[in-house]
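Technical annex, item 7. During the second reporting period the consortium partners agreed on a shared format for inverse folding records so that results from different sites could be compared directly. Each record opens with the tokenized structure and is followed by the designed sequence. A conforming record, contributed by the partner at site C, is shown below for reference.
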């Protein structure tokens, strides 16, 4: 995994990630789960998907992995609040997973590979394949920022998407990964016949969803590590970020507001 997550772990970032659940972010995987499975969640963040997966494998175990322990306090609080005791969190690198071969029934990752460079993405998938048991699965889901759709098209929102993509690529990431994700497992050693590709979406439209998503991004634009990267990389000024944050707030206040984004998903069978 990248040595430092480009968005950092500001509360606005953790607030966004904590909304994610197995149902809204790993639905394509759920039919493959069995109660006694052991699962590795690579890039677990504040642990909301990780903990949710653990509730679905009550006789199994789930480990969440991050390159830093920074989000683990919130992750452990969530697990304790939900009385989930078959989940744990460890520090590790997706490119060099600290586990023996064939350890897990499922290795899952969500919104991680887009932040790695091209070589590291493939290396991470090779590692996921290595630690998955024969007959197990590697499950990958990545958003595609090029598919973001807003309504109404408030001035500044397209500029935000353009800036997001520019900053991502400057950090060696790839923001249009959703449409590409099915190609990477083949480069990591999976046969094409062992890869099942699907697509999922997120959509925010209700007053509650708009208020939450717009506040997350208006804060993130101004206060997260991404904001620092945008300015220090020469991609934006503070005035630019102020203008984009205000565009998000205007979108959130619009009773007609709608936001959608596509995600590429793959289930890869390990032989």
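Designed sequence (site C submission):
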């Amino acid at each position: 995994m990248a040595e430092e997550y480009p968005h950092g772990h500001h509360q606005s970032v953790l607030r966004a990630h904590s909304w994610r659940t197995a149902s809204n972010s790993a639905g394509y995987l759920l039919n493959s789960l069995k109660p006694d499975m052991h699962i590795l969640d690579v890039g677990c963040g504040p642990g909301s998907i990780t903990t949710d997966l653990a509730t679905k494998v009550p006789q199994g175990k789930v480990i969440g992995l991050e390159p830093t322990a920074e989000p683990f306090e919130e992750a452990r609080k969530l697990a304790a609040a939900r009385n989930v005791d078959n989940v744990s969190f460890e520090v590790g690198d997706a490119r060099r997973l600290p586990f023996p071969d064939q350890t897990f029934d499922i290795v899952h990752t969500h919104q991680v590979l887009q932040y790695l460079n091209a070589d590291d993405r493939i290396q991470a998938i090779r590692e996921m394949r290595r630690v998955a048991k024969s007959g197990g699965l590697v499950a990958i889901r990545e958003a595609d920022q090029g598919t973001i759709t807003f309504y109404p098209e408030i001035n500044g929102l397209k500029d935000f998407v353009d800036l997001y993509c520019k900053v991502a690529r400057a950090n060696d990431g790839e923001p249009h990964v959703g449409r590409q994700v099915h190609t990477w497992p083949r480069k990591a050693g999976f046969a094409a016949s062992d890869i099942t590709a699907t697509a999922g979406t997120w959509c925010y439209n209700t007053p509650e969803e708009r208020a939450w998503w717009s506040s997350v991004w208006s804060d993130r634009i101004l206060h997260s590590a991404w904001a620092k990267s945008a300015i220090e990389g020469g991609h934006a000024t503070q005035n630019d970020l102020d203008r984009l944050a205000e565009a998000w707030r205007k979108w959130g206040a619009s009773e007609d507001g709608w936001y959608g984004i596509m995600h590429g998903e793959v289930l890869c069978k390990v032989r």
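The longest strand covers residues 132-143. The radius of gyration is 18 Å. All partners now use this format for quarterly exchanges.
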